[in-house]
Amino acid sequence: MKYALFVGCTTLSRLPGYEKSTRSIAKKLGIEFIDMPGSSCCGTTYMDGLEEITALALAARNICIAEELGLNIVTICNGCTEVLTKANKSLKDNAELRSKVNEVLLETGHQFKGTVEVKHIVRMLKEDYGINNLRKAVVKPYNGLRVGTHYGCHLLRPSDVMQFEDPNTPTAVDEIVESTGAISVVYPEKMECCGGPVMGIREAVTWSIGLSKVETVKKYADALITSCPFCYITYERSQMMTENNPNLPIVHLPQLIGLALGLTIDEVGLPLNKIDTGVLAMKQRE
Amino acid sequence: MGKDFRNLILNTPGAEKLMHCYQCGTCSSDCPVAKRVPEFRPRNIARLAIYGQRDRLLSGDLIWLCAGCYTCYERCPQQVHVSDIISTLRKIALLEGKIHPTIKNIVKVLPIYGYINEIGEFENEMREEDGLPQAPQPSTNEIAAIMKSTGILQKIGGGEY
User: Fold this and answer.
1) ipTM (interface pTM)
2) CATH number belonging to domain B2-95
3) CA distances (Å), origin B143, targets A5, A11, A253
């Protein structure tokens, strides 16, 4: 299995633990990730709301790089996933839009052809690698570790674009979590947004939304699992911004998977998390 | 006046179903931002759009407070999609030079860094220390060419490219 890896700005510059664990579990599972030369920001989730053609062209340029490599794209940021999936779908479905965007792309030397797929790592693990194969690769399963899963909006919504799982009752992340032996707990308001995109508009709103989920999950679980850099940052920082820090460990999904695959805490970058994640290793079978 | 602005909204992509809104409030009840910000109510934004209330919609940071979570999009029984109405209002705001400064800054740096922030020598040194490869070096000339071609930087008031 071979993919073009699209890491995304925020993980590249701020979350080495997420990127490191992603690369480490891929290696362990025999999945080859090729970096995309010349790739850039996806265009951000804001761009489509400002100017459609700019949004499509910026996203398409990145997709073209994967097309030229002849590889499907794996993403690890929900924002990038939505932006690239939406552009890929719109440009595949709409010939008029495609020719407009290809005209804008002329000067870049790239042309969108519509030959590749875009998948978030969660979707790739579920649909391509397979949950059963993941379960078979687990050598150090968790024992009694209770976690809350947070999907993040753009893995699922808008559902007519993402076409992945039911946006109200998804199961992929929970299935992945349970393949490691951890227990995915049921908790209220599980599908609520982290509030991350409002961080640059009114920060306090983001911390309030973030903290609310952290406090809920804290009642039911040992840790909260994310698979998007913005959700991770929101849940980690919202705790550090408050006086009574609940100290709920926030863990990137590939970090949780990695330990179960027998990787060390350094190989999955766990010491880089700002809230102590020692509970993970403590609740593993030897 | 109100009707003119309503027509402008209706003629901008994304707001085709605005007039189907029967004000049930499903969007507001499920909105994570509305739970914390009293003035941000998706139902009210739809109502103000129907009445073409330009000033109340475009002043302050109201339309920039949407988190884009698409919860209202999924649950609207009339497929009005207030999240799309808000995108429409942002497009109109952009034409009037009223883009939120945070978002303006993100757009402005894209042709310079290729990312939403600089990932240069210093950042790559840090990445190396963490055992990560160099970040892909974005073809900023290509990004600038795209943004010049669509004129987005002039629209946000970000100067020539």
Assistant:
1) 0.96
2) 1.10.1060.10
3) 20, 20, 32
